[in-house]
Amino acid sequence: MAIEDRIGPYRMLRLIRRGGQGSIFLGFDDRLQRRIAAKLYTLPADREQSKRALREAQLVASLDSPRVVQVYDVIVSSGHLAMVMEYVPGCDLEELLNRCELCLASMLAIATDITAALAVARQSRIVHGDLKPSNVLVAPDGRIKLTDFGIAGNHGALHDRRGSFACLSPEHVLGQPLDVRSDLFALGCLMYRMLSGRHPFLHEGRLDGQALLHRMPAPLPAGLPDGTPLPVELAQMVDGLLAKDPAERPQNTHSVRQQLSAIASAIPRTLKFPLVEEARVAFREETADELPLQIPPGLRSHGRSRMPLRPGQWALFGFGRHWRRSQWLGAAAGLALVVALSLTWFWPRANYVFVPSPQWRYDGNSDLPAGTDTLWLLQQLHQLSLQADPSLRFSGEAPVFRSTKVDRSLAALRRPPPPEHLLISLNCQAGICVLGLERQRENWQRYRQALLLPGAPASHWREVMDVTVQQLYGSSPRLL
């Protein structure tokens, strides 16, 4: 196998999923003869932030529970971190909800297992911080495993804003410390979606910040699609989990598990655990191609030909023993050509980007950090973008991004218009600012938005913008 198909000692077989925070690969551990899943993260350029990411990965690896995906190894290179984890065949809850409607017993089983996983994390003073359906795995036996504690941190610590909009709590948006009650709020959002078919605070993929901070969602339906009445106790529990004030939510996982157990005990026994049958339609197909061939280790690593050489044949350390001199010369010339083409292909090239005039909707400078203005905001975005991708070459109408030097060279005149546009917008309304960043190309676009607090310190705005810019320019195709 080629070296580029390995992460440390682990062989990579195929890509499972590519997401906003990193790519997940299916791999194989030749030493222990088992499949693994490897998730790749791009480490921050800042050294202290990079060390923090490693500490978080090591902290997550310490969790040991059948309800949590086990982390086997943490591998670090100069710019990336890979978490080598237990591979869970089956599907995730996002895939399952998109394929079928669950019965009440299945929903209660899912919520109970998630609560058990959160209880284990709480014992280690870990906050998950990104509890969304795609991070809830459904195993073939119908049990739930919680994964991707990628932004985990110490209980009560200040977190950055990398969590998905689907699981943000009010205190997350307000920049307050997070604890288990923040994860319970995300559990309430997940249960609301399972019971109603929609997220309580997301509309067409956009977060309604005012509803998240100040309004309760619409009441849950009186019954499920299969005609099962919704227990009043369950609706009340979800309302309690979605309380705006953490002090008004359940204070630990134990009380939530007790309520779920009491509700489940009232369900007829024939409906106790149908999740295995319901989830089977969404399970990923497992093929023989995903299992490595069982080649004896001695033949795989030390096998050598012992046939005698014929006249005119050459060999180098046992390699190419059946090649003639002309074939060796041709192979050397081909190798030189491949090296030259590789250097040409991978040599860094400029990535030209046009930045139109930003769209501002805010109440003067009162919404921006004290002592700053829109020019400061654009300066920060310009610096952070170049840190994320040094090959960027900006031009356009926006201050700071507009080039101050006029290039009248023949190469500049022949250069086509920039293939990419970067759209910047800031919308501040009723206590929340939404910074929108969108990359546009002919057949591709990527949008990221950040929630910012008017009047918050400039350092807070820069930290949030840094995370958003890293997401915007991470794991995306390059134009060469």
From TrEMBL:
Keyword Phosphoprotein appears in the UniProt entry: no
EC number: 2.7.11.1
Keywords recorded for this protein, A-Z: ATP-binding, Kinase, Nucleotide-binding, Serine/threonine-protein kinase, Transferase
GO molecular function, one term: protein serine/threonine kinase activity
Enzyme class: transferase
Listed InterPro entries: Kinase-like_dom_sf, NEK_Ser/Thr_kinase, Prot_kinase_dom, Ser/Thr_kinase_AS
Domain Protein kinase: 10-261
Keyword flag Zinc-finger: no
Entry protein name: non-specific serine/threonine protein kinase
Organism: Kineobactrum salinum
